[in-house]
Fold this sequence. Notes:
By secondary structure, the chain is an alpha/beta fold. Helix content is 19%, strand content 28%.
Amino acid sequence: MHFKKIKALIERKRWKRQHPTVxxxxxxxxxxxxxxxxxxHIYIGPEAWFSLRGKCRIGSGTIFxxxxxxxxxxxxxxxxxxxxxxxxxVKDVTIGENxxxxxxxxxxxxxxxGEGAVIAACSCVTKDVPPLAVVGGNPARIIKYRDADNxxxxxxxxxxxxxxxxxxxxxxxxxxxCEYHPTK
Length: 184
């Protein structure tokens, strides 16, 4: 086996021991893994691509859909060369607790996503997202806010999906999970 593959396998096993409540689906490209700072009961969907020259902090209970991207740096385009020079502008990304990030979302350097926010699929998050905001689009804009009383009541009661799923307390039957809403 090639040395780099062995090293990557060892790194993944070490990482999994350090984060036993985190589900990181294969395949993924997260470099370097050491710049990813995680809470508990997090799900990162398949084909995640996180370019982490800076730190990325993700709060407990957060769920990522497939193919999400996080950038913590960008090229310096106002430098000494065109279209950009050899310097990276590095800015950390922070994602609060219990955030739901839909499929194919891109998160840009320096963004903070507040607790309980929902990011619609295919959004590009270029600016901070307030707590409990539901955002979508490119660039992502606020659509509405979650019900704060309901959110805080559920949090107080410990109704955190990934934590409950780990305890076997969520519905697993696909028929029961589907709530049909006919279109008009």
